[in-house]
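Q: Two folds, back to back.
A: First:
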Amino acid sequence: MIRSAKCFILASRTGRSRISHLRSHFSIFTSAFLLLTSYLFSQSVTTSPYSRYGIGEIRENGYSQNFSMAGLGTAMQNDTTTPFNINLANPASFPFIRLTTFETGVSSNTSKLFSNGQSQLTNATSFGYIAFAFPITKWWGSGFGLQPLSNVGYNVTDSKVIDSIGTVDYLYNGNGGVNKVYWSNGFKAGRFSFGASASYLFGLIENTRKAIMPAGQGYFNTKTIRRTNVNDVYFDYGVQYGFTIDSLRHRDLRDNVRIVWGATFTAMSDINAINNIQSENYILNGYGYDIPRDTIEIIKYQKTSMRLPARFSTGLTIRKGDKLTVGVEYTIQNWSDFEMNKVNGGLKNSSKAIVGIQFIPSRKTDVNVGYFKKVYYRAGFRYSNLPIEFKGTQLNEASFSIGFGLPVGWNKHMFQYNVLNIGLEVGQRGSNTMLKEQFFNVLLGISLNDRWFVKTKFD
């Protein structure tokens, strides 16, 4: 009787300890989410003049693992052992998560612009994303998070000679972007898995156009500021089919081969938005500041819409055991259907091809090996036809990425496995015959895996 009481007290203390452990995790996650959310919207992560078009520079739909593999993700699935990564690129991958997974990251962009024999170097650093995913059953996984959908950050100057006026300088400036909070669910049925993501899009895009007249001609400068607030719901869907080969010609393979095909689809969607527009005449004082003279036009709370085009991607990955993953992917998006304030802006349909690879020298279950044999080595190449046309030529982009997943906090009982992810990307948009942009992107992220929601057992 006394022994049973001691066991009961011990089990109760263990239960309270685990509950306290869960509460501690939840408190840390909630605090980080609220703090980093407020930080996210005050930053811009692009200085590209090409972010002037459409809704800005579109962010890749994935996190640190995808980034280091050039954005590969449509046919990516989690391995059967830790660490697990959140693959937002295809919600059909969510049922393969086996531990509660938290990811967050910071990104930095450095760009060098070349035009008319001159160059300019710019840099922007911002919080990148925050995400949380967890298994619900063996066939159902779910997750939610926050990340930018697009970024706007440009400052462009152009000049034109107008008869009877002279040389007029046009200044175009923009900042902001569209963000999304998403909730994804994935379900597994045999070899198939299906998923859907519901996203709430929100954000502010501010575009400013200035016309600076020649001095001493009696003309006022003009300025128009358009602020577009986006607020609406957006959906995308995914499917995956995977099978494992464990023998070949009646011979067992030492490492099973896993082949996965995946596809994602997003339908064309009209997103609600509100415009606030102000136009005015102004002069420049001796310090270069704008001094308003009179207001030309004010439009407040004008209801409008933003039409986001349909998008389709398909991909194939081949994984040999835990050590090697190779994949290809192709994406198209009909940007010719895009409209913002009922204007397309001359955008064209875009396409993207990706090749990615991940390699780890040792098996994940090998504990007594050197540290660098546990590191994840990743690389990828991406070639894109962007939706932007410049001087009659559609813009293209090529980039190469590498990355490393550095294990932190190994636990052989699979209770916890964390990875520090470092990704580097170099690439170029345009060519010498147009505005050329060379860019260098860095993504620093962390993936935390833990076993939550474990029922306490009494002995």
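A: Second:
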Amino acid sequence: MTPARVGFYVPAMSTVKPRTMPGVLELLPPEQIAFKRMLDTIRDVYERYAFLPIETPVVELTDVLFTKSGGETEKQVYFVQSTGDRQHGREPDLALRFDLTVPLARYVAEHEQKLQFPFRRYQIQRVYRGESAQRGRYREFYQCDIDVIGRDRLALEHDAEIPAVIADVFGRLNVGDFTIRLNNRRLLRGLLSGLGVGDAETQAAVLREIDKLEKRGPGRVAHTLTESGLDADLVRRLIDTLGQRGSNDEVLAALDRLDVADETFRAGLNELRRVVEMLRASQVDERRFQVDPAIARGLDYYTGTVYETRLDARPEFGSVCSGGRYDDLAGFYTKSKLPGVGISIGATRLFAALLEAGLLKAGESTVKVLVTRLDDTLGDDYLRLAARLRAANVPTEVYAEAARMKKQLAYADKAAIPFAVIMGGDEHARGVAQLKDLRSGEQWEVSRDDLAGAVRERLDRR
């Protein structure tokens, strides 16, 4: 047989070493189960807050995707090209999405007339970036996003709703203490204007540098800003202001006392204060959110409230959930003004870090019962037992051939199946079966009519 040609030749009898490309997370079943449960927890909370699911294609047209280009984005895109186009030397007009924000903008603009606004969407899908192969950086990874999109306007209440969702998600994930840090880009813009940094382009550059404060430290950031031409005294005042710490009320009061005569600064401060008040009204534990004037979010499209979430005991993880308010989601695709607010959780990176740190454990098997096989003449009866268990919502596997019981139980143990059902000719004649807990070693004789209920009861105790 001649092998297919796809731009290269594979010898007919060659053996290819099985391997994955760098930058992907491929898990064994126990870890995959834990990852799925993490995604299920996130999905459950999103739906609890009335967000609706959408999915978009993994491949987008390049002219649509590159509306959010610039910087490193174009260097990280994976293009998609058919064999025919490649052979004819055509430039690719398709590419893999690198985030879920651009597809959301396209989706809302394309379906605007069919959507109910404010549009509340969640999306849990893979994205792709040509990252260099290094620890914690992935080329294929899951993002878990929520956004609320308005038409023409969007109430500030949604800015407070988003951190309430974040607090609920991370509380249910049981990853220890965490802090959602809050700020407002209008406050920062107004602060810069009040200090005399009035040029919008310069302000954007300063905000991108401020976003590196925690990673680089105040000294290096101050040096960079001074080297870029800002007055040293202005930089010192700016760094001191951004370093305000204390309770939420203390930080807000300190910001209020600043001698900054700028309307944008005051508007941003009032929005930030109101978000804190609404979080309290939503009964979000105040230990879980902190006003932090240094949070800037480096992306220029954020215009109001911004968020970063960090695990208190693992600051080296960096932000595990971030986002904010933006004025115009889909300006490249529609003349409608579509403001929004949202966040994204990089689930793959978060899961891998939590697993490595021992904050998450591999999941239990999704299979709960192994029906063993002692007597091949009872094969149909084993199938009937399994059917009754599955009808009671108990995931069940039937051992496919007669074998020594020791071998069958060893199989169940290695597969992390917690219970085994044992039925030989004597049990069959008496209408019973043996139910064995493979963790404790306990074993009970149970009527076959009561078997499903007995398993269900013991599973519910765990």
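Q: And?
A: Residues 29-48 form the longest helix (20 residues).
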